[in-house]
Design goal:
Layout (H helix, E strand, L loop, with lengths): L1 H15 L3 E8 L2 E7 L2 H22 L7 H7 L2 H14 L22 E10 L2 E8 L2 E12 L2 E7 L1
Antiparallel strand pairs: 1-2, 3-4, 4-5, 5-6
């Protein structure tokens, strides 16, 4: 009887799982393995991960300034307002965005600024694992689709 219950439980566990490991994106030549539920979410995840990677490479760890048009390309209006308000709270001159919120709090350290991997958490959420001047950190970015485009909506 115990063997039958065990086999029944094992069969149920395997048949109920529709998730499978899929290679998503190589970041710094390291494959990021993510659990995905369907091919449509695979396509969305691949696009969202590529957008996050590009944003970090160019504007967070790169040398391209995140001006109004860059923020409008990547962030929803609500996230843009949040970043603008945080900038205004830090600097009295205003007119910028607190893009440092996408990084660690490091001010000094090694000359390493890179994304180590990006993982899908499902439901449009992604966790970004990075090395910021030798300080490893993570941020969760929630994405949404507006007018057929992917935008960052929340940053945790």
């Amino acid at each position: 009887m115990k063997k039958i219950l065990f086999l029944l439980a094992a069969a149920t566990a395997f048949s109920c799982s529709d998730k499978q490991a899929q290679q998503q994106v190589a970041v710094n030549n390291q494959p990021a393995t993510v659990l995905q539920e369907s091919s449509s979410s695979n396509t969305f995840d691949a696009k969202a991960i590529a957008k996050i990677q590009t944003f970090y490479s160019k504007h967070i760890f790169g040398n391209e300034f995140a001006n109004d048009s860059v923020i409008a390309k990547y962030c929803t209006k609500s996230l843009a307002q949040e970043l603008s308000k945080a900038y205004d709270n830090e600097y009295s001159d205003g007119g910028g965005y607190a893009v440092w919120k996408f990084r660690s709090n490091a001010q000094d350290g090694e000359d390493i600024r890179e994304i180590e991997k990006i993982e899908s958490l499902g439901e449009g959420k992604y966790i970004v694992h990075y090395n910021d001047m030798g300080n490893k950190g993570t941020h969760t970015i929630t994405t949404v689709i507006q007018d057929g485009e992917i935008f960052f909506d929340k940053l945790d």
